[in-house]
Write a structure and sequence with these properties.
The chain is α/β, with parallel strands linked by helices and about 325 residues long. Helix content is about 30%, strand content about 25%. The protein has eight helices and 15 strands. The protein has helices at about 15-30, 45-55, 70-80, 95-105, 210-225, 230-235, 265-270, 300-315, and strands spanning about 5-10, 35-40, 60, 85-90, 110-115, 115-120, 125-130, 135-140, 145-150, 165-170, 200, 225-230, 255-260, 275-280, 295-300. The strands form three sheets. A seven-stranded parallel sheet has the order 5-9-4-1-2-3-10, with helices on both faces. A five-stranded parallel sheet has the order 12-11-13-14-15. Strands 6-7-8 form a three-stranded antiparallel sheet. Helix 3 (about 70-80) packs across helix 4 (about 95-105). The N and C termini lie far apart (about 60 Å). It binds flavin-adenine dinucleotide (FAD). Flavin-adenine dinucleotide binds near residues 232, 245, 248, 262 and 263. Flavin-adenine dinucleotide binds next to helix 6, helix 7 and strand 14.
């Protein structure tokens, strides 16, 4: 029986991204009439093993890969994914690094940033954004295996429980010729933008760094939200670069994305287009963001944000 393989790095555990990859893998395997197998690169905790075993018939853990190094990770993935019809990864940086190299090594074809996977006439079709988010393009994967990283957090988790088996994989790991010698983790308090359920994002129309701190931070606080920003606000140095949402920033998929004084340029929309509900506050009724939101207020943010914060505080007290 043919198989679809998913590959996860253990570092993030059974987070929303891992659940999205497992869901995409399960549905793709069902569409192809194949089994789903999972590989975890690195030591896995119980939540990750159990979550994967519910979605995949077989889960192989490579605990020997204690920290990510590209060559041993690639060698393990190549050895365990050989013969698969398709190999799916999430949208973390490690996955994005490995996907093209693994596709080459397995004689298949790579694909990046898949938003939708379908099986039509036995072939895998991938939908992804094109032209900076202005269009969608659909690709037919002809080479085998199709090695794809998906926008995992925006994809539905798997349903049901297939009761898969979990085992330790024994693979030969080569000595790394190239090693990552130092890592700097982003300083971060609370949830990351990618994991956030609610995001309060600000743009150039705020006019400076102070409103982020004095108005948007209290609003985000009362909404239990994580703060984000447009590139214009980040480039101006008003907020840190890692707050940037968009084509060249973070791809987010919250339940609610509140865009304040953000025009809604296509490059920004590309990063937050998977949000379940989008709301916007903008003085310009013709701002493109209003074409992409469920709720909007045409008003100066200074007249709305403090009121909204007060009202939400009242409701919570
Ligand atoms: C290759 C490339 C990659 C890019 N990647 C990204 C990316 O990842 N993320 C990203 O965000 N951008 C990206 N950009 C930039 C993008 O094209 C826009 O320039 C940027 O998103 C604009 O940011 P903004 O909406 O904050 O500013 P603006 O477009 O200037 O919009 C400001 C908005 O604030 C409103 N406003 C003004 N005053 C008020 C007020 N008092 N109250 C309420 N509303 C008010 C205005 O009506 C306006 O709509 C990229 C561009 C390129 C070329």
């Amino acid at each position: 029986m043919s198989r679809v393989q998913i590959v996860l790095f253990s570092k993030n555990g059974w987070d929303r991204g891992a659940q999205g990859v497992a869901g995409a893998g399960r549905r793709l395997a069902d569409g192809l009439g194949a089994e789903l197998h999972a590989v975890v690169l690195g030591p896995a905790d119980d939540a990750l093993k159990n979550g994967l075993a519910a979605a995949a018939q077989k889960v192989q853990v490579v605990s020997a890969l204690e920290e990510y190094q590209p060559e041993p990770a690639l060698a393990a993935a190549a050895s365990l994914c050989d013969g698969a019809a398709a190999v799916l990864f999430g949208n973390d940086t490690y996955s994005q690094e490995i996907v093209p190299r693994l596709a080459h090594r397995l004689g298949g074809a790579p694909m990046a940033d898949a938003q939708k996977l379908e099986v039509k006439d036995g072939r895998i079709h991938v939908t992804r954004s094109a032209y900076g988010g202005k269009a969608l393009s659909e690709y037919v994967m002809k080479a085998t295996p199709a090695v794809i990283w998906v926008r995992s957090r925006a994809l539905e988790p798997a349903e049901g429980d297939v009761g898969g088996a979990v085992e330790e994989a024994t693979v030969e790991l080569p000595e790394a010729k190239l090693r990552i010698t130092e890592r700097h983790e982003e300083a971060q308090e609370g949830a990351s933008l990618e994991e956030a359920e609610i995001i309060v994002s600000g743009g150039r129309g705020l006019g400076g760094p102070e409103p982020f701190e004095q108005m948007l931070a209290p609003l985000a606080d009362v909404m239990h939200a994580v703060q984000g920003a447009s590139r214009a606000a980040c480039d101006a140095g008003w907020v840190p670069p890692n707050w940037q949402v968009g084509q060249t920033g973070k791809k987010v998929a919250p339940e609610l994305y509140l865009a304040i004084a953000i025009s809604g340029a296509s490059q920004h929309l590309l990063g937050m287009g998977d949000s379940k509900v989008v709301a916007a506050i903008n003085t310009d009724a013709d701002a493109p963001i209003f074409k992409h939101c469920s709720f909007g207020i045409v008003e100066d943010y200074k007249n709305v944000v403090p009121l909204l914060t007060e009202k939400l505080k009242e409701m919570q007290s």
